[in-house]
Give the backbone structure.
Amino acid sequence: MTFWQDKPVLITGASGLLGSAMVKDLVKKKADVVCLLRDWVPDSEMFRNENVNDVTIVSGAITNQPLIERTLGEYEIETVFHLAAQTIVKVANANPVSTFESNIKGTWTVLEACRRSPAVTSIVVASSDKAYGTQSTLPYTEDMPLEGKYPYDVSKVCTDLIAQSYAQTYQLPIGITRCGNFYGPGDLNWNRIIPGTIRSILRNKQPVIRSDGNSIRDYLFIDDAAKGYLRLAEFLERTSVLNGEAFNLSSETPISTIKLVNYILELMDSDLEPIILNRAENEIKEQWLSAEKAHRLLNWYPLYYLDDGLRTTINWYKEILK
């Protein structure tokens, strides 16, 4: 019997890129998966691969506390993965209030419901590398202060601190993840650099870079991220030492936007030239993470190098866009 077999699990934001990957993993491990969905998203990978037929769907908003409490109680949930959030920086800049509503209120709503649900034995909350803000030293490590300034970044600082507060004050078994940029099969947010670039090339259009191309990020393949979340939840059940601890999950291979786009062009055997708009606003210039703590305490290591992850991702887009 595996750790996850028959375990009741709730995933918020299950139709997103990470949520779909986690649903796939947990269904394979024979967990009893319950998904909270605000919107029905038929293009989501969870629907495309028909995992939606293997899970229980609860429809509603992440800010509806009575709904969350009913779900936790009715399905006797033991593990909660809180992923639901407004995740696009550009959208957050344009819509700060709705971003704060979903990302901040949504977090305290879920955690307050968990506090009232004694069956819950582990909770993993998704923060972000953006919560660190701009730091004078790179890579980011978990002991650095959280200094986000822009709407999305601030919403993740609040998410992070609320999770730490519930862990410290109420001894809730909470672990926090801070990840780099996700990519991989299932990402349909075309304004992200990897899916947007691949789609443009497949349509023989020049890929567009909103920034000046010199921003540096690290990119984490989505299957590696999902396995990191599962590993953290498993460790939270085994020991209380990790309660309230944050973990960076990263491939530790930072790359500039222009180099990434040119690498994708090379992998796709394209001679198109990228268009550089140099219009990005409210974005951090350089950020990447150290995952040493996750290596040491969780024994988590990514399995995909950027080359392997991009090839897998490109093949997926070729299939769905042909």
